[in-house]
Amino acid sequence: MRCYAPRVASPWWRYTWHTTLGLGALAFSVAAMLAAIVRLVDIGTCVSHPVLVSTRPCPEGVGALIVLAGSVSFLGFLGWAVYATRLDRRRPSAFDEGPDWSIWWWPGLFLGGAYAFARAADTFRAGGDTGAAVAMWATGAVFVLMGVAPLAFGWRGLVRRTFGGPRPPAAAGLLGSLQTLNPAAIAAHAITTAAAAAREAEARKAAAAEPRAAGTASSADADAADGPVAATVTPSADPHDDDLVSALERLAALHRAGQLDDGEFARAKAQVLRRARTADR
Amino acid sequence: MNPTRLYMFLLHVAVVAGAVALAIWVVERLAG
What we know:
A: mainly alpha
């Protein structure tokens, strides 16, 4: 895999300050939330309210842990936004450079949650509560699936993006910047960018190969000297027809090269023919 | 002076390690 070198344009102190502030708040919040959840799950049920009454008294500090687990999410969001708005490329900043781990919030949060559920499942199993243990394991499994889904489908895109690779184009505003952190959008962008580049390279290769084929054909047929299409098809008097034929030829070449499967070829062909009909009218 | 790659890497590691350690310390303290 290609390794992307970070683009560095900021003085070290600005880079240091922004990274410490944003990434520090983000990492602190995620870690504090997960640590608090793990502690609370270890403690188990103890809170009573008017409908459900627990016979176990809560140990000291449970309230503070609940408040912490709830409130740090806001701090985490702020840190995330600070760390992430480096993606706003219309306003280049220190955040536009260097490794950027902000997209890993998704796998981090879900895999951390899965760890908390696995711990809870083990605690319940040791306590003899098999039903609760199974429920915890099932929830943990869902969290693992959620966490690894973007890795499974686009880990190359995520790694490239971390080290300054292709980024989805940012829409205007803070929401647009934050949208570029959507792992699905990043993976999809990386996949479509790579696929488009591969198709383009293949088409260029095919275009470079076709004139040679045409040259061979023209030696056999002196009339066919007008390039790739004329070499195989009788030139038509109508320029629209020539465009149509050359478009169909290009599609067929891509299909032969394996760049388009049968379904894609059929759809593209239908689209070309539809456009030609519209142009004729 | 611009930050080098090694500096950026070490900074990220240090910031994350420090923040995680601080979070665990706070939670342990709150939990008693």
